[in-house]
């Protein structure tokens, strides 16, 4: 875990693609080849359930040290970067939609999706805590898809030692509600004075849901720094600058005027 540096700069990439339905080997192979052609970055973010698609069957459920997590460890080590993405994981008799944050040194953090969408709870057990990760002078708040709709859950904190700098949301957010995705990503950046990285998939899945992507990186002032093309597989890149973020917070110190509350999950 790195010490805080206000001069920190990190480079992040978001991978927008169309996972093959319940074929983890094919999806991992596709991404491994893609990783070999990408620009060097510090963090790579993949969509929700990137290895299987948003599958609510018991197919492709893995153990907590399963093939996809080990694949993420291999890629993180090989390319010396953090790899972020979610997998269906069985543990203690439950199945979780588990986001993994995997570092090149083998350190792994995880977050179990708290807010379950629609029939997701027919298979998935909800998580019960947030996950904020310190890395290279930044604090990253990681979350999954539907979590984005809940402003109290996403709310940043004050004083600064308690808040986060980057919200990462990995998603399988379908076409009919894509306008909500765009609006909420920007709102979360502005209201929380943070970078927001939203990575969504494209294509069609066996649920007969269509996805158009709209993966993007947004600065704390609402400026869109990177935006993937509609309905296309694409890698987007952005530079996260801690100094610029702190200058913006100094100019617009909204967080200190926020309401005080306790979040109960």
TrEMBL record:
The keyword Plastid does not apply. The keyword Hydrolase applies. InterPro entries: C-N_Hydrolase, C-N_Hydrolase_sf, Omega-amidase_YafV. It comes from the Bacteria. Keywords: Hydrolase. GO terms for molecular function: 2-oxoglutaramate amidase activity; omega-amidase activity. PROSITE patterns: CN_HYDROLASE. Residues 10-242 form the CN hydrolase domain. This is Putative amidohydrolase. It comes from Pleionea mediterranea. The lineage of its organism: Bacteria, Pseudomonadati, Pseudomonadota, Gammaproteobacteria, Oceanospirillales.
